[in-house]
Amino acid sequence: MKPASPRRFDATLQQLGRSSLAWRFAGSVLAFSLLITLLATGLNLALDYRREVRAVETRLHWVGQAFGHSLGLSLWNLDQRDARLQLQGILRLPDIESVQLLDEAGQAFLEDGHPQARQRLSQRFELYGPAESRGQHVGSVLIAGSLDEALQRVAERSFTTLLSQGVQIFALSAFILLLFHGLIGRHLANVASHLHQLRAERSAAPLRLGRRWRARRHDELDLLEQTINEMQQRLRDSHARVELAAQVFEQAGEGLVVTDAGHRIVAVNPAFTQVTGYSEAEALGHTPALLRSGQHEPGFYADMARQISQTGRWEGEICNRRKTGELYVEWLTVSTIYAADGSVHRHIGLFVDITRRKQDEQLIWRQANFDVVTGLPNRSMFAERLRLELAKSQRSNQPFALLFIDLDHFKEVNDTLGHSAGDALLHEAAARLQHCVRETDIVARLGGDEFTVILAELGEPVQIERIATDILQQLARPFAIAGTEVYLSASIGITVFPLDGADAELLMKNADQAMYAAKAEGRNRCQFYTPAMQESAQRRMALASDLRAALPLRQFALHYQPVVSLLDGRAHKAEALLRWQHPERGAVSPALFIPLAEESGLIHELGDWVFREATAFAAHLRAAGHAQLQIAINTSPQQYRGGGTLFQDWLAQLKQLGLPGEAIVIEITEGLLMDDQAGTNEHLLRFRDAGIQVAIDDFGTGYSSLSYLKKFDIDLLKIDQSFVRHLQPGSDDLVLCEAMIAMAHQLGLKVVAEGIETEQQRALLAAAGCDYGQGYLFARPMPAPDFERWLAGPAAPTRRG
After folding, report:
1. Is the full-model pTM beyond 0.70?
2. How many CB atoms lie within 10 A of CB 694?
3. What is the DSSP code string of 375-407?
4. Phi/psi-derived region of residue 533, left when phi > 0, alpha when psi is between -120 and 50, beta in every other case
5. Could you tell me which residues come within 8 angstroms of residue 638 by beta carbon, excluding any fewer than 6 positions away?
6. Is the peptide bond before 498 cis (omega within 30 degrees of 0)?
7. pLDDT at 297 over 50
8. pLDDT tens digit string along 463-511?
9. Alpha-carbon Rg of the chain, whole angstroms?
10. Pairing outcome for strands 479-481 and 344-353
11. Which residues pair with 526 in a beta bridge?
């Protein structure tokens, strides 16, 4: 084994010097060892002394036995000389201090020796005569033995024993001290130092006792090391959890407030201050009533306290007040922490400011249920209000009226003045509608220019008409929009519960039909629903159903009406007009089925068929020698919407027929130009590139604008027949026609006048410079074979078909 170095030994001594436990342990071992040694030594001394005494007693007894007979003879014979000699022999024996020979009377017959011992032992032996005296008692001998030498011998052995035992005890104590320090003491010192550092939070490493020798099995020190390390790890984990909890408490985005059992605030986090405006110092010691807004009834807080008391928890929405006085809404969760005895220890309140979310929810709800432009209930909210009104009226057995209001010609206003102006007009119209009804009535905007009004709890039916008339008058007043006075009218359809229907869907359908009836009668009026309207609607639905089958069943045909030059009377163009010959209804007016085709989407398929038929006929006419004749084809605004490839197919059709674009004229309406969609101009540019001319049909009936004529490539302008029908010298219609003709010529456009039926009309228009005329004066619309025969006859401006 490698000897310990002096430096290590010195370090060990220093550690021993600082180890009070080691010295206390060594002192205890030394004291216990001394006590045991003293007790053992004392017992040994007592036993040695007892052995010495027994030796003296044995010697005295031996003397008595050995000299008793001879002394008895000497005393029987009264022979002092012989007796003295025996006494002197006895005194020469060890530890014999004195001998006294006594006669039968107990008187001293002879004695020898000098008693000087501090401790002595005496024995008396009886003496008897010779045998012939028959064992007569003659006296006794008293022998005294000294115990001083025995005591001295015992004392000498005691000193030697105590000295050797003392040395052994000291050596043993030193060995035990070193052994204790090596095996236990220094490790306990390391444990104490480690725990001290752990208490001061200066130790992060686990405890390592550094034992150079370990038992095969774990002993108490191993268990102590393992236990301390486990406790340290648990303490570290607990400390980490505490630190994490503190960080969470400080960094949490939700407000946290902790109160004691008496509801006094004992802690708040920064989020609490951020939300409420109260600092920690301002909040501590107060109750959460510091934040009360006064918006809740006292019973609200009583119910909250009752639930917390019964269940230890409460969760809900609450309105509080910030330090600034501003109200805010929070979602609060209150939890209770109980002490070991079951009493309330703390209340923890966790809250989130949901004011913004509530505002957003309110905004979303309002946007979902109210119109953004007018602030009125939208279609969804109106349906709910109508359902509630139906339920209420059914319970109270009181009628109510439903008004369906549509603004006449609103689209033209929106197109000419812009959507911002249109929104402003709708907002003003909504305000006027609300002004016309009671607070208990409901005004809603369904979308676009459609409004509804629910007149609740009606007294007299005449009240409905009075309110409707007031609405018409209010909406007929001019609207000041964008510095311009705008005039509108309205068409109102009216239906009454329960007279006209008992469910919302039926009432809405009835009001809608009545509104369309009001429009059909000239607009700016109201119309009550009648069963005849339902019959008309059913007929319209049946007609729409038949319309879907008409094209596959070849029920459509094109008729052609010539367009003649007012200068030479020759036919330069022909308008292709669609006709529907129903097998049961007969000829159906285009005014009936064209709107149905537009609403159903069949207009695309139908328009494609018209184009194929018209271009095929144009190719036929060119082959027949009418190379300069153009065929005009009407188109619907619906065909220009959706960004399809229909017109590309049309151009492919022309190419397939070998027909130049100059052979075709595409007629569009004024309204199409006002839609101002990007696709419209793109299509018109494609027509121009292909050589196809474009004509504006029914010019003057809409919101005419010169800017549109300049913006788009237009070749022809067709004056609507409403301006020609009453054309006379000096009439306003003549002035308007002359103005339109002059304007068109200034823009480089040719003019076609529709509906010419008299020679006077033709002459006036020719005098005004109109280029072409179309009407019954020249010819009626006719099937293709008849038109071809008409072309073969003598050209005459007055020809009628």
Report:
1. no
2. 19
3. -SB-HHHHHHHHHHHHHHHHHHT--EEEEEEEE
4. alpha
5. 598, 601, 603, 604
6. yes
7. yes
8. 888 899 999 999 999 999 878 888 889 999 999 998 888 899 999 999 9
9. 68
10. unpaired
11. 492
